[in-house]
User: Which sequence fits this backbone?
């Protein structure tokens, strides 16, 4: 194995256009509908920080690019700092970092702030310096979008504080956090009714109670269209945490347990796991995919 090589190809499809937000923009119904209203409110604000969290490959950048395309106008100065630049957007200044020549996120971000941007997209907050510069920008008249690697929305402010960002800065700069995952969609060409096995039904009853027994679940039987996998394409599952006055006060206290408790109350019933279950109930994905999301959150 030591002498073998491996290549990974990331295919970024832009031919069909970027995702659209329903409700706030033209009523287009897409995979972002559970959090679209909250995103629309966040990006309409003149200042503050909007963070999208999740593991690598969960669609974080795509979500932020969708937000940028909706508010991209000639009179708005938008600058992105990325590693790498994944999508080319007309009318937006995009800068790719290069650590080999000391062109780091923090260094580029400091230079970006001298260009009087209205909106800044930071590809990823990786360290204390980048976190503090981004949050300070959000407090001083800029709208900041970025991503972070945390497993859910409510642990994100705690993670920023653990990275060294002052609690007061996190509490006052952060407007909202979106956590997301991607689940596989059932192939429409071979979709059929599915009777949950004992393990699946036990899990569904743990989430839904006896209502799980009335669910009309589906799965893909496998066909030439989906290469006999039963799945074709992917769709997002989301949760969103908005920084209400209660959460701002809890985050300012720097007591992580107090914040997690308050955040849990706000997001109860609208978590990633609940949205994955909703996708399964709607016949969009399988129970197995919903369980997979739950397992990742518990690890």
Assistant:
């Amino acid at each position: 194995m030591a002498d073998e090589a491996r290549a990974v190809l990331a295919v970024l499809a832009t031919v069909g256009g970027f995702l659209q937000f329903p409700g706030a923009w033209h009523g287009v119904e897409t995979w972002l509908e559970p959090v679209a209203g909250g995103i629309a409110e966040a990006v309409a604000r003149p200042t503050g920080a909007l963070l999208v969290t999740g593991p690598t490959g969960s669609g974080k950048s795509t979500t932020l690019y969708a937000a940028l395309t909706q508010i991209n106008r000639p009179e708005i100065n938008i600058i992105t700092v990325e590693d790498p630049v994944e999508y080319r957007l007309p009318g937006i200044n995009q800068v790719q970092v290069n650590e080999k020549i000391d062109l780091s996120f923090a260094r580029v971000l400091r230079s970006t702030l001298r260009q009087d941007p209205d909106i800044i997209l930071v590809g990823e907050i990786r360290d204390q310096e980048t976190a503090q510069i981004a949050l300070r920008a959000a407090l001083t008249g800029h709208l900041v979008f970025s991503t972070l690697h945390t497993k859910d929305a409510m642990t994100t402010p705690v993670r920023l504080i653990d990275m060294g960002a002052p609690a007061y800065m996190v509490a006052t700069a952060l407007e909202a956090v979106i956590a997301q995952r991607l689940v596989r969609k059932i192939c429409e060409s071979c979709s059929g009714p599915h009777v949950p096995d004992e393990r699946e039904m036990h899990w569904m009853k743990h989430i839904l109670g006896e209502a799980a027994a009335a669910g009309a679940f589906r799965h893909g039987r496998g066909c030439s269209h989906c290469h006999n996998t039963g799945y074709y394409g992917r769709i997002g599952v989301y949760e969103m945490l908005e920084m209400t006055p209660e959460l701002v006060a809890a985050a300012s206290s720097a007591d992580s347990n107090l914040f997690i408790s308050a955040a849990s109350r706000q997001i109860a019933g609208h978590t990633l796991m609940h949205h994955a279950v909703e996708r399964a109930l709607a016949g969009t994905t399988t129970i197995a995919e919903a369980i997979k999301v739950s397992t990742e959150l518990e690890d």
In short: The first helix runs from residue 36 to 44.
